[in-house]
Design a protein that fits this description.
The chain is an alpha/beta fold. The protein folds into 3 domains: 127 residues, P-loop containing nucleotide triphosphate hydrolases (Rossmann fold, 3-Layer(aba) Sandwich); 62 residues, Helicase, Ruva Protein, domain 3 (Orthogonal Bundle), CATH 1.10.8; 120 residues, Up-down Bundle (Zinc Finger, Delta Prime, domain 3), CATH 1.20.272. It has a 5-stranded parallel sheet with strand order 2-3-4-1-5, sandwiched between helices.
Length: 324
């Protein structure tokens, strides 16, 4: 069986592939399961491995991660020639019955003109998935905790989902940590506040997103949470500056009529992050980003020269933020 999982979230795409493998291969070893990183493996190697079965093994599973050769080429860019693509196409036209082959694609579109994609459509299945949203994460959380005989109070669940954001890998790690800490007790809001910290990049993303949404109350809430976990104002200014520079780059590339996928590839980020940034700047005065960056610089200077306390200077920046 051949399965292609297409999802903008790389961690979630990998999770879905491994779920499929675990279902049919509860006991995995080096003879019946192998995973390839397709940025360092050729399609030919995958084809050869899929067509080979060790003595004493009846079936095997293969996961080929990050298969860029299955994606629709970026407009205006020369199509990359992948070594051994013909061999993999031949295999997919006549796949072995004893191999379950999974491909993961980190994006949302396949190359419909590719003979390889045509072969997969003929002899396998293609599964399109959206990046996890709050509803899906909540469902995953309920299933995970019920299997472990654990529960979570509603205020704690809302806070966890808020802190995890759209980061599936972070969410999965934190829900495991909370279930271990809580044991047989329900997970409480205090536990979440004590144990769960947003990744620094996600904190900057969430903080800038709150400011762009004119949600000053949420911005101060994120700031207070970061302070509680030891983040100082100068470091936060650096993170915010990086976030707004990224926003400026996205806006510029969008003005050049680049697609979301093209922007993501140019900047080396996941496509959903580009989409979120584009949504956040809709109707905003993009030229004001330069002014925001200058205000961040002045805020850091004020703190470092001792002309104002860090709390006052950073709080004033948050309260007076404007991108109009």
């Amino acid at each position: 069986m051949i399965t292609v999982i297409v999802c903008p979230d790389s961690t979630y795409a990998s999770h879905l592939a491994l779920m499929g493998v675990r279902k049919d291969f509860p006991e995995r070893n080096e003879n019946n399961f192998i995973s390839f990183n397709m940025q360092v493996t050729t399609p030919k190697e995958v084809a050869e491995e899929a067509d080979f079965l060790s003595i004493g093994i009846e079936r095997k599973a293969i996961v080929a991660e990050n298969c860029t050769f299955l994606q629709k080429p970026v407009r205006g860019q020369k199509k990359v020639q992948y070594e051994g693509i013909e061999e993999l196409t031949d295999y997919c036209n006549n796949p072995a019955d004893f191999t379950d082959l999974y491909f993961t694609v980190y994006g949302d579109k396949l190359d419909d003109k590719s003979p390889l994609v045509a072969a997969i459509k003929k002899n396998g299945r293609i599964q399109f998935e959206k990046a996890p949203d709050e509803a899906l994460l909540r469902k995953k959380m309920e299933v995970f905790l019920s299997r472990r005989g654990c529960s979570i109070l509603e205020p704690a669940a809302k806070e966890l989902l808020s802190r995890a954001g759209d980061n599936y890998a972070h969410f999965a790690n934190e829900i495991r940590k909370l279930s271990i800490y809580a044991g047989n007790e329900p997970i409480t809001l205090d536990m979440v506040k004590m144990l769960v910290v947003r990744p620094l990049d996600d904190n900057a993303f969430a903080l800038s997103d709150a400011l762009l949404s004119n949600n000053v109350e949420k911005a101060f809430s994120i700031y207070e949470d970061l302070k509680m976990h030891g983040q100082d104002e100068v470091a936060l200014i650096g993170l915010l500056s990086t976030s707004f520079r990224f926003l400026d780059q996205v806006a510029y590339l969008d003005s050049m009529n680049k697609s979301r996928r093209e922007i993501a590839m140019i900047l080396g980020v996941e496509e959903w992050r580009v989409g979120k940034r584009l949504q956040s700047i809709y109707g905003k005065n993009i030229e004001s980003i330069a002014v925001v960056l200058e205000r961040l610089y002045e805020t850091a200077k004020t703190i470092l020269t001792g002309n104002a306390t860090p709390e006052f200077a950073f709080g004033r920046f948050l309260a007076n933020f404007s991108l109009s």
